[in-house]
Amino acid sequence: MFSESSSFLKGMMLGSIFCALITMLGHIRIGHGNRMHHHEHHHLQPINKEDILKISKDERMELSKSFRVYCIILVKPKDVSLWAAVKETWTKHCDKAEFFSSENVKVFESINMETDDMWMMMRKAYEYAFDKYKEQYNWFFLARPTTFAIIENLKYFLFKKDQSRPFYLGHTIKSGDLEYVSMEGGIVLSIESMKRLNSLLSVPEKCPEQGGMIWKISEDKQLAVCLKYAGVFAENAEDSEGKYVFNTKSVGLYIKEAMNNQPQQVVEGCCSDMAVTFNGLTPNQMHVMMYGVYRLRAFGHIFNDALVFLPPNGSNND
C-alpha cells in the first residue's frame, strides 16, 4: 500500500513538473509565430555617409534635431558607485536620462520601483516612461549601470529610421525559438514599439508578470516574449562591415580576444568604429572611456562629420 502511494505521489509530482514546463515553454514559443515570415528586417545597419551627403545641410540639421533619446537606467542600492559614474559620464549626452531604482535611495535622485525583481522594474520603467514622455521622445534606450553608451553613435545609427515603425534593436541572441535583444548591450525601442508594449502590459496571458513556474526567465527574454505578441521582433544592430555596435563586454575584453584570435589585426578584429555600447565596466573604466571618446583629440586632425547632434538645451555634457 505504501509503495503504491509513493508511486502515485511521484507520478503526480512528475506530471505537475511536466505541465509547468510546457506552460513556461509555451510563453516563449506562441504568439504571432506565423508573422515571422513577414518580418522584413533582421540585421540593421546605419545609413552610409554618401547617402547622408545627398541630403541638404539644412535638412540634415533639422533631422538631427528631431532625434530625441530618453535613457532608462535600472539600478539597485548596491550599484551606488556605478550609479555615480554613469550619472557623471555618458548619460549627460541623452536628451533626458532617469534612474529607476529597486528602492528609495537618498544619495541619488531616482524613481522608486518598489521591487528588486528586474523584470518588474523593467515593466514599470517602460510604463512610466511611455505614460509621461510619449509626446516628447521618439526613441527609448534602456541599460544597466555597468553599460557605457555613446549616444551620438546611437543617433547616427537611427538616422533615417522611422520611429513610427516597431523597432526593437541591440545585440540579439537566439534561445530556442525566441530571438531577443540582450540587456547586457542595451535595448532600444522606437515609440511605436513602446506603444505596442504598453498595450500588452495589462494582459497577463500575453505579457505575464512572472515568467516561469520552475525557473525564472531573464528580463530581456521576458520583454521579447511580450513584444513578439505585439508583432515586434528583435533586430541585430551592425555596422557596414557586419560588426556588432551594441557590445556585451568591455573594450578591454574584446582587445584581449582579438590579440588571441587575430594577433596581426587587433584593431580590425576588436570592435566597430561606430560602437554604441560596451558593458561590464567599473566606475574607473567609465571615466577612462569618457576621456577617450569625448575629450582626447589629436592636434592637427579635423573631423568633418556629415552629421552633427547638438546637446540638449541646458545640458552640461562634454
From TrEMBL:
Protein localization: Membrane
Source organism, top-level taxon: Eukaryota
InterPro entries xrefs: C1GALT1/C1GALT1_chp1
Membrane as UniProt keyword: yes
Keywords recorded for this protein, A-Z: Membrane, Signal-anchor, Transmembrane, Transmembrane helix
Membrane topology: Single-pass type II membrane protein
Family assignment from sequence similarity: Belongs to the glycosyltransferase 31 family. Beta3-Gal-T subfamily.
UniProt-recorded name of the protein: C1GALT1-specific chaperone 1 isoform X2
